[in-house]
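Much of our argument rests on the idea that a fold can be written as discrete symbols. Part of our work consisted of pairing the sequence of a single chain with a tokenised description of its backbone. The amino acid sequence and the backbone structure tokens for this protein are reproduced below.
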Amino acid sequence: MKFNGVILAMIEIKEIVDKKFHLLSQKMNEYISEKKLPGIMVLIYQNDQIIHCEKKGVRDYENQQGLNYDDIYRIASMTKPIVSVAALMLYEEGEFSLDDPLSKFMPKAKHLKVFTEETNGKISVEPLTCEVTILDLFTQTSGFIYAYNPTHPIDKLYNNLEGENGEKKREMTLQTAIDKYFDIPLKYQPGTKWKYSISTDLLGHLIEVISGQPLDDFLRKRIFQKLGMHDTGFYVPENKWPRLISIHIKDEEGNLIKNEKDSEFAKTKPSFLSGGGGLVSTLSDYLKFTLLLLNKGTFNQTEPLKQETVKLMTSDHMASRGINYVGLDPNEFQDLPEYVATILQKYSEDCGFGLGVQVKIKKNSVPLGIYGWNGRFTTSYWVDPTNQLIGILFSQFSPNFEYPIFDEFADLTYQALNL
């Protein structure tokens, strides 16, 4: 199935099963037969064609409804690369430099404080040693966090603000929520530590401040319409609800069940337009986005992004600043269960971090230069510019670190291709 520049926006995803990927197919069957995941779709694209596209399992485990290739998935943190590309469009237009302080656009950021300790329930803080920069937002080195540690006082403040499963946050506007985040001390001094965080939500608001448009409007006009990503957005219109996949979890007995609360997420337009994790998309739409990156910023005979900007985005920005990326810092995993730490350590080993993407900086089972990211509900993608290769995996199961499926997908792909 080959595509040229004129018809890329009309990609139709179909079943294409190549026998050389039999170990990958076998692994997918294993996840379904062992009832680890409800369903999985994978797509592998190389040299201007889809070379393997396969689906296993169901979209709703309770009702045993089969998967369709045009199903809509909550892509969670796979939103981050899209918003990073959107921000880089403004960077190309000279609206900001990477070294600009965030306070240039959001003055309240100048007065942030940094956590030092907690004594008898009282939090102590210190002043900023340097301000949060735009580069810090792209690279998750801002000092902001996601609340993963329920015992830490800063994480507790995030949880109080966001509510259970982020319900309070979803009711706020992006502006209102960020104003409240600025009232909470940073967990670390900016530019000193990689920490997965709300940084890309801040980047999304930066787009709003500079462009004067709501984030959803900017993404639609500048990216989705140009690439033909007609099923990508912050919510699913009612006429498309039948295509929206259910999210699954495990109950206390280890059985797959539908997560009713999270499965309602994305059926209505949220107030909080999360640049860090709010989008839904399809296999076809996300392929178009990754093709923009693989083709170094060009798509459908247009150039939404310059070649040098894609190179900047997909280069490591950790080592040059003396900052350890997550896989190089064992302290990142000290509050996590051992099996989770093991999976995350392997996923991020030999990697650095670019502008919204993880970047492979040392060769191991997969080649140097691969970049990509994954999402909370078990979605993942990677782009390999050397081998002109794209891999996309979609499921809907939480948490995404329950199984090493992302590494297995990449490893089995490269084994099949003898790369």
